[in-house]
Amino acid sequence: MFNGLEISVRRYAARCSRDAGAISRYLNGSRIPPWEFILDLVRDVAAHRGESIKEETLQLLRDQHDAAAKTQGNPASLLRVTQLQLAEADRKSQQSAIQIEVLTRALRDRQVLLGNVEMQLRELRHRDALVELQVDLVTEERDELLSQRSNLQSEVAALREELRRATLRAQELEAECSSLETKVAALEGPEEVEALAPGVMAVGILELAGFTRLSKRLDEKELVDLIEKVRRVCAQVSTMTGARFFHTRNSDISFVAPTACAGAEAAVLLSESETNAMLEDLEAEPRIGVCYGQVYATAGIMLGAVVALAERLSSIAPRGAILADSVLVEQLCAESVLHVPGEVGDRYDAKPMWQRPVRGLGVVEPWLLERASENSGIGSGNNEEG
Question: What distance in Å separates the CA atoms of residue 196 and residue 209, rounded to the nearest whole number?
Fold first, then answer.
């Protein structure tokens, strides 16, 4: 299709104000282009050839684009496909609403005409009874009005049936819009990080290793249901601990909490949730890293050495386990919630793990964090916040 423009990639990139490297990746198949790029390219080729774009061609391209995005399998692609489906369903719903309004007006007009004809017929019947000399003329006019009434009655019946079908179609489209809005909400996930103020806080990373492989095994409904379950668990943990959740990249989920205790509680509740156990059964390998320190935020991005360390800890954590840094453990001790032999009332146990070098951060000694044996998780009724 692109060859039909008879220009180079760089020249077309300058024409449409896009990155030439991105266009090259779209054309060689290494990256799925957004639907807007495909639509612009089709229009440019059609304009260059002096041809019009057929609706069947656009629908075929859209179906192929949706199929390619679903095959890719990541939540971002599913989100984009679902957003496009929602926009298309909303457009059809608006068209259906316009159709209903037109049909309603036509039905109202025909009913008014039918009422007028009925009134004229009644007048003619009265005149027929009073004026016998004009029987032939009255009969001819009456037959004509009777014919008009029959035709109008047929039109009214047809319009009512068409209005009924249009109303049912509008209801189906509204239901589809509601379903797609639910899917979009599930795929968009937790809140954005743009409003996060910099400061000292706990930051954690829930890494779902193997999620891309898992998404290819599940159908679209199963994948959306799984994402919605993860979102509900994040919302529940946020309510219980005050932690804030948001996506960072791919399938990873990040969270921040104002205190070390709140961050530890959020991490433990995530590891204890039924959704986490389900992810382990599906071989998604959920792992959590949580740290405490200075966090910066700019343009919707979290920065700082503590953020990088939390990412590294989540990548090396055992399956289904939590790794914490020494600063978080020290802060938990200062908040008197870490297990100390001979004392009671503690919430968490921390065990030192092996020392190992971490790229860019030097040698670190992570701690295996878990709940103390006398405490329980989300399903046990212990809703105490950090």
Answer: 26
Q: What is the value of pTM for the model shown?
A: 0.50
CB neighbours of residue 302 within 10 Å: 20
Which of 44-58, 77-91, 150-164 is most confident? 150-164
Going by C-alpha positions, the residue among 184, 170, 14, 194 that lies closest to residue 97 is 170
Give the H or E element holding residue 87.
helix 75-130
Let me know the angle formed at the C-alpha of 88 by 85 and 89, rounded to the nearest 5 degrees.
85
Tokens 């609403």 sit on residue: 97
Give the pair of three-digit tokens for residue 294.
Answer: 């200075």
Give bridge partners of residue 350 from the DSSP assignment.
369
How far is the CA of 209 from the CAs of 78, 179, 246, 282, in angstroms? 19, 29, 17, 11
Residue 327, both tokens: 């600063």
pLDDT digits (tens, 9 = 90+) for 27-43: 887 777 887 888 888 88
**What is the H or E stretch that residue 132 is in?**
none
pLDDT tens sequence across 122-132: 888 877 766 66
